[in-house]
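Try it yourself: sequence plus pyridoxal-5'-phosphate, in.
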Amino acid sequence: MTASSTWDFNNVDPVHLRASGSGKWNKYEADVLAAWVADMDFPVAPCVTDTLRSYVESGVHGYPVTGFADTLIEVFCGYVNSRTGIGAVPELVRLCDDAVQGLHAALAACTEPGDGVVILSPIYPPFFASVEQNNRVVVEHRMAPDADGVWRFSFETLRAQIISSGARAMMLCSPHNPVGRLWTRAEAESLASLAVEFDLTIIADEIHSDLVFDGRPFVAFASLGEIVKARTITITSANKAFNLAGLKIAMIVFGSMALSDRFDARVSRRLLGAASTPGVLSNLAVYREGGPWLDAVVEYLSENRHVFAARLAAVAPAVSVVVPEATYLSWLDFSAVPGVLGGGSVGERLVVEARVGFNAGETFGAGLEHCARVNLATSRAILLEIADRIGTWVAAQAA
Ligand SMILES: Cc1ncc(COP(=O)(O)O)c(C=O)c1O
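Structure, out:
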């Protein structure tokens, strides 16, 4: 029996998802296949369901025992250290409601109004919003695909941008959403070297770090030696790997006491919320027992990215598709399809004309109307149907 045969990831029912209040499946009309926001369509690991069932059946939902959330922090440190080598210690970890809150809080605490913050685009849209809403200034470095379609940053251009902008921080997404990059050690080290050279704080969103394919190593920024670690704030959670976004818990991990002192002086712990009991219980469950389920889902997702790319190559060869090295998100470029360039948002057109709901490319960076992000974390049958709908739509453009 392969790991994935223990769980039936092919059993996805959009009607059930919609009826259960899934934001992903309620955004569009019922006939639109939802492949946008980063939720998986699969039921959570059984250890989560069992834990939450016991909690509900207990009928006891008052304040938990003192120190309850501290247990989660300890267990999380063991988990994250064993997987990423960032050497997290409980005193330097803060729980918050979600990773985006962590990004905002880290920016507010560790940069000043007007400071430049480097981000590599195309990028998960809240990166732009968190910088702008905190009255910092986006210093956008636009990456580009190489000859093999692998998205790369340019070290020299980035360095020049840091010098000319006087940026004070770098907000990095690793692995990188939406272009599925798993930064190599050399790439991570070169980004970190710029942070050291120009005294930048690194805010590293590593929420997708458990969703890595082909056995390649994930290189956490805070694992790159003490000098880099001391300037790094890692933001992570179980939400992506274990599909728990509705349970609202994320972790902010400081690489040094200096960073956590600065943070605590500016953001009182209460402003970060207080972890809910079901959130803590389900996080404890996945960190302690979720490993086999995670392995199985990664195996299924890994296959999905190839199945999708192969079908798309067959039905819509004009569309270029990223086979992600990590994350269950893929990036599509429709610029070679007749009538797409200059034709407005392809993401919006696909909802109306192809009945597939993606994230529109332009939300990941200006000028990307010809691109869209697709979520691959669904059943193979739905994934193939999504590819086929793209194929039908592309054929209609050429006709
Ligand atoms: C890179 C990245 N960071 C943060 C989030 C959101 O996480 P949360 O719901 O914990 O704010 C996502 C969700 O897609 C993401 O891709």
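One thing you can check immediately is this: The pocket of pyridoxal-5'-phosphate is lined by residues 38, 98-100, 124, 173, 177, 205, 207, 237, 239, 245, 250 (CB under 6 Å).
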